Amino acid sequence: MEFKYLYNHEDDAYNAKFNNVSINKIKQYYNMYRIILLIFTVMFLSILIFMIVKGTIWYKILIFAIGMMLPILNIYLKLRLFSKVNNVINYQMIKGEEEEIIITISDDGIIEKDSYNNEILYKWKNIMEVFINDKYMDIMMNKSNPLIIPLRVFNNDKELDEFLELLTSKIKDKQIYNIK
Q1: Helices (H) and strands (E) in the chain — how many of each?
Q2: Under a CB-based contact definition with an 8 Å cutoff, are residues 5 and 139 in contact?
């Protein structure tokens, strides 16, 4: 079973209320890690220069350099990660831009794929509960953001009912709430 739809501004606004990542928190972490990276780098260079001037044995300098580079590398990689996440979160849809989303049902779960070939598998065992309102189906997941499917992907009520039957058979002990 497969459904295609165009993700639009209305979907973007609806999804925003489920976004668990705080942009301000990411910016705070990003700035904190930049300061820590600067402090570590200055300390590393200062101590390294002091050891060379003092005439310390080279193997001690090498061990120190390796030991200090590990936390610097760790901080650098976290900065890169925060920067990429920040860029993704700050991405805003351009007016008139719509993105094709493909929802596929598999034995493992529900697969959501976008036009950029990003693919997410929502495993059946991770589904906690399902809410259906007038326009959207919110499939709440354990420890992650929900899968939100616009009801317009279903051509008629029969397709929606078939999908709900399949969903019910896969998540037997979970509830489906119709809050229309």
Answers
A1: 4, 8
A2: no
Q: Which residues of 9-35 are buried (b: 16+ CB within 10 A; e: fewer)?
A: eebeeeeeeeeeeeeeebeebbeebee
Taken in order 20, 73, 28, 84, the sign of the CA dihedral is negative
Please give the Cα distance from 136 to 121 (Å, whole number). Answer: 19
CA distances from 159 to 49, 133, 151, 163 (A): 71, 16, 10, 6
Whole-model pTM above 0.90?
Answer: no
pLDDT(90) > 60: no
Counting beta carbons within 10 angstroms of the beta carbon of residue 139, is it exposed (0 to 12), middle (13 to 18) or buried (19 or more)? buried
CB 85 within 8 A of CB 21: yes
- The pLDDT value given to residue 92: 53
The residue written with tokens 């991770």 in the block is 126
Cα separation, 103 vs 2, whole angstroms: 6
Q: Can you name the residues that pair with 102 across neighbouring β-strands?
A: 4, 113
